[in-house]
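Posting this for the archive.
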Amino acid sequence: MKLKRSVAVAMLVLVAASQLPGEEIVGWRTDGTGKYPDAKPLTSWSATENVIWKTPMPAWGNATPILVGDRIFVCAEPTTLVCADARTGAIQWQRENTTLDALPPAEAAEARRLLKEIDLVGLSKQLRSAEGKLSRVNARLRKARDDAALKQQKADFETQVSTLKAKLKPVAHLVLPKCHGANGYSSPTPVSDGRHVYAVFGTGVAACYDLEGNRKWIRSLERPKDAYGHSASPVLVGGKLIVHIISVFGLDAATGKTLWTEKTSAAWGTSTPARIGAEDVLIMPNGDFRRVADGRKLPVGRTVKLTYNQPIVDGGVVYFIQHGGKAFRLPASPDDKPQVLWQTTPKKDRYYASPVIHQGLIYAVTQKGVLSAIDAGSGQVVWEQNLKLGRRQTFPSIVLAGKVLLVSNSDGKTAVIEPGREFREVARNTLEPFRATPVFRGTRMFVRAQKHLYCIGR
């Protein structure tokens, strides 16, 4: 186990060494692993118990908070980046990042002129309503194809949709893309190099600020097309901001300039940076391995496409964890293919939450709260436990804080588990509903709940 830990530490050092001098990258799940070995968290809390502070948020949001010095950054619907004081919770600044903000000056001026003539919000709501009604009528028609009344309703709704789209056409690029109500537009977690903070939203907009809230650049990269929306977080590696929407973009972190773009498939999970030989690479949830320098796809053979969560890298092995997930040993050279080590079959269900690996076990949880411990060496499921967290999905990813695992669902319920080859629950707590993943520093836990940002501890 000591050897495995040494290899894992060496891998993290290699990834850190690929950044610019003096940078400390903080982003999705802090360092991407979801592990806080130095944390000393409380195991008992509620919305009133052991709350150091809680701050009302301007709107709900799913992005995991990031801690940068004494600042904490979170996102709020639909396109707001919020900076708060990590010591007191006081909001220091907040900035909007709309598609309009990202337009060149001349285009923005014309868009503002058009918006004075067009009710963007009202027409957008009418369009969504008409499209929803049309969809429901189509579903009924599939079961009653000769129903004349339904056919007439379909024609009427098609006319409404066509008319509304025509009215919105001059400003269609400013209409928020479709998304699921639980996802929204602020699910991607920001990332920081300690000097700047970068945010990406489900509108396809990316922006960079200094820590004082001064915008350095803003871009509209690509409009998401999936009806469920976008949630993959940006990754900062090798001086590049990597943004995966439908295509994957390699941006110059300092200027926002596109250095390369590669077509690929969309994913809701976040990519994981790693090192293969002397190259920084990005291991993507869709199974691609891409070189950070130019986006080139590496020859990986048949990998695994994760539907929802993040690949995890530990000790020179990458794990794609879901029912039918696999483990691959990373090659010594980018030109070589990874070696398949094993396949695993934990409970067949959706795995929204990203897993955690600790002392030879991988912990993964289904959307319905069934937690599995998987042997990292063989892929064998060691134990499986239904945590019965509640009726809502387990969206927050698993966290290892000090000596305990935290598994939460969207009701705000958290099971505190002692890691090991036998299941043991230590405590169970309830906060207000949240979908973001908690983060830790020392004795304090920070949770971005739906209505508030919490600091819990002593």
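The CA atoms of residues 164 and 298 lie 45 Å apart. The chain has two domains: 2-100+180-456, 118-174.
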